[in-house]
Amino acid sequence: MARTVWYPGHMAKGLKQLRALSEKIDIVIEIRDARAPEVTASAFSSGIAKFKPLWVILSKKDLADDKATKDWLSHYKKKGINAWAFNLRRPSFGGFLRALSKLRPSYRELRLVVVGVPNVGKSLFLNQLVGKKASPVGGVPGITRGVSWYKGKGFMVADSPGIVDPKAGAAVHRCLAWLAGSRSDVIGGYHNIALDFLAYLEERNLLKVALASWDIEITEGEPEKVLESIGKRLGCLAPGGSVDMERAGKLLLDSFSAGKLGKITLELPEQPFCSPEEGK
Ligand SMILES: Nc1nc2c(ncn2[C@@H]2O[C@H](COP(=O)(O)OP(=O)(O)OP(=O)(O)O)[C@@H](O)[C@H]2O)c(=O)[nH]1
Ligand SMILES: [Mg+2]
């Protein structure tokens, strides 16, 4: 039977390493994807946040809807959570660094740990913070495999592997796969994950906007037909002339990751991806 979740061994190991580190940490910096800040919330920080200050960074601001990002920031502010949003490829950390420096103990460097689900930009954030390419960055989930410390100006910062909540269900894994945070090839294939993505965009009235630049006909309620049109438009043809749906699905998801579908946010504070009762 096809797998519905992706939870490789390095995630369980990473979670153990993070728990062992908890005592030494001054601030937990949790990176979430601005396009889906609740689905990409970290299981680790929800536990540790009771004991350590938690700062939330919404990454990929350049790929998210600007109004939605503003709404998320005020939502977190109302909840008393310190939250920031950045395009981590070109961040302006001025205010953030000033706020950090206020928390430095007089007798030693500040100790930070960067946590989050896979592929949200933890290592890129860390590299920008320390001002060099310290930790490897990549567009597929699972690049960082263990916890490592790096030195910045007045602080030490630990990178950690992307970890999905071990209790997260198939729906969350599928949404993470749309955001390149879970492995589509492992949890059902690009064709299936892309169909799910198209159905979700339609449900949220985002489909027409997302596909506007490709100028294709959209058949409502028929994601299979929409994906076929995308495949034709992008030249994903199999021998014999039929559409290679697996390739079309991958190209659609890659286009979303690269921002080619425009600035799109998948969940809003008043309309999250799924309610807690539905079981994430
Ligand atoms: N456009 C854009 N891309 C980003 C941003 N932040 C990260 N990325 C890209 O997202 C991908 C993942 O970045 P990483 O820093 O490797 O993510 P990670 O969370 O460390 O990933 P794992 O170690 O695999 O868990 C890379 O292709 C980054 O260039 C951002 O703010 N904007
Ligand atoms: Mg990483």
User: How many domains, as an integer?
Assistant: 2
How do the strands of the widest beta sheet line up side by side? Answer: 3-2-1-4-6-5
Low-pLDDT runs of 5+ residues are 275-280
Q: How would you spell out the order of helices and strands? A: HEHEHEHEHEEHHHHH
Radius of gyration: 19 Å
What would the average pLDDT be, to the nearest integer?
Answer: 94
Percent helix range: 25-40%
CATH architecture of the largest domain: 3-Layer(aba) Sandwich
The distinct ligands, each listed once, are:
guanosine-5'-triphosphate, magnesium ion
What name does CATH use for the topology of the largest domain? Rossmann fold
Per CATH, the class of the largest domain reads Alpha Beta
Largest sheet: 6 strands, mixed
Decide which structural class fits the backbone: alpha/beta
CATH homology group of the largest domain: P-loop containing nucleotide triphosphate hydrolases
Shape label: elongated
Number of helices: 10
What is the subunit arrangement here? single chain
β-strand number: 6
What percentage of the residues does DSSP assign to strands (E)?
5-15%
